[in-house]
Amino acid sequence: MSEKKQKAVGTAPGKAILFGEHAVVYGRPAIAVPVFEVQARAEVELGELGQGTVVHAKDLGLRLILTDGPSDNPLCAIVWKTLAHLEIPPQPDIVVSVESTVPIARGLGSGAAVSTAIVRALASYFGKRLTDRVISDLVYEAEQLYHGTPSGIDNTVVAFGKPVYFVRGRTLEIFGAKAPFTLTIADTGILSATKDVVSDVRRAYENSRSQYERLFDEIGQIAQEGRAAMESGDIQEIGHLMNRNHALLKEIDVSCPELDRLAQAALAAGALGAKLSGAGRGGNLLALTTPETREQVEASLRAAGAKRIIVTEVSSSCD
Ligand code: PMV
Predict the structure, then answer these.
(1) CATH architecture of 181-314
(2) Most exposed: 1, 153, 155, 256, by fewest CB within 10 Å?
(3) Relative to the CA of 283, which ligand 1 atom is closest?
(4) Is the pLDDT of residue 172 over 60?
């Protein structure tokens, strides 16, 4: 067996979906980028002998003991799955603690970030190396407990920590933007459960298949054009595509007045584009800003009700 350390740490970033949410569940391409300004951090350390494997979610005030087998709790599930993958039995004396600055239920990939941090910390604690691909696959299994039918984009972008062009079950391409650009991310403060929004979209899709197939096709087309715009460094075009994507997300009924208000405020203050990100009906809005417009857009977003603002740079492939 590999050597146990006294203590090991694993971290993972949050994420934002730049193009293609919801349509990605139906096989269309989507693009997501990591957001390193928020992160999850897990720590594994030696506890008291006989206490079992303890999972401590500091932010939630939760202390759980790992049972001998799969669990419905996503935190226990990822610990269990990782130990099973590493062929290590549940331990009589370890504590897995996790904390995160990725806001929960706001479309920034909190569940995937926490799970990824846990996998990394456990692998490091037992002196094992796991590839990003394997980490992503393990996290996907835990994501099913948060989301039901996740497309897999969250675990992929969070585990790889790079922009990804993703088609469910088919393509995973890590790629870079030709020129860096800045996203100003504004939180509506409204919690939104991805599982609920995804199942509402499913219901609407079942009722109007041809209409939704057409909308998903258009969104998928935008994701393809978005990748081309990122690879050629055409920032204006990225903004234009974000606006088109937001309009289509409104058509599939996953926006809300608060998100639309933030989008309008960002555009009125000079943002090049604005769209909701993630499941929608709350959570965060992405605005594409330049050094000249950033401050004005931020002030305008705050005046329109943004509860928190995160500024992140999508770096260029040359950085
Ligand atoms: O709300 P989030 O960040 O979990 O993003 C969900 C993205 C969806 O496309 C709506 C669902 C999925 O599984 O891809």
Answers:
(1) 2-Layer Sandwich (3.30)
(2) 1
(3) 1
(4) yes
Q: Which of 71-75, 106-110, 292-296 has the highest mean pLDDT?
A: 292-296
CA 178 to ligand 1 centroid distance, Å: 26
Indicate if ligand 1 lies below 6 Å from the C-beta of 280. Answer: no
223 in ligand 1 pocket by Cβ < 6 Å? no
Please give the Cα distance from 232 to 84 (Å, whole number): 43
Q: Which CATH architecture does the domain made up of 7-174 adopt?
A: 2-Layer Sandwich (3.30)
Ligand 1 binding pocket includes 198 (Cβ within 6 Å): yes
Number of the ligand 1 atom closest to the C-alpha atom of 168: 14
Pocket lining: 194 vs ligand 1, CB cutoff 6 Å: yes
Q: Give me 52's structure tokens.
A: 């079992």
- Distance from C-alpha of 74 to C-alpha of 277, rounded to nearest angstrom: 23
* 18, 38, 116, 154: residue to mutate for ligand 1 pocket, most atoms within 8 A of CB: 154
- Would you say 187 and 284 are in contact if contact means Cβ atoms under 8 Å apart? yes
3-state secondary structure of 188: coil
- Model confidence over 283-296: pLDDT tens digits? 999 999 999 999 99
151 lines ligand 1 (CB under 6 A): yes
Tens-digit pLDDT profile for residues 21-45: 999 999 999 999 999 999 999 999 9
> Using CA positions, which residue lies closest to atom 5 of ligand 1?
278
- Give the residue ranges of DSSP H helices in 17-109: 74-85
pLDDT digits (tens, 9 = 90+) for 225-273: 999 999 999 999 999 999 999 999 999 999 999 999 999 999 999 999 9
Backbone angles phi, psi at 276, to 5 degrees: -70, 165
Could you give the CA distance from residue 125 to residue 107 in angstroms, rounded to a whole number?
A: 30
- More confident: 61 or 122: 122
For CATH 3.30.70.890, list the domain ranges present in the chain. 181-314
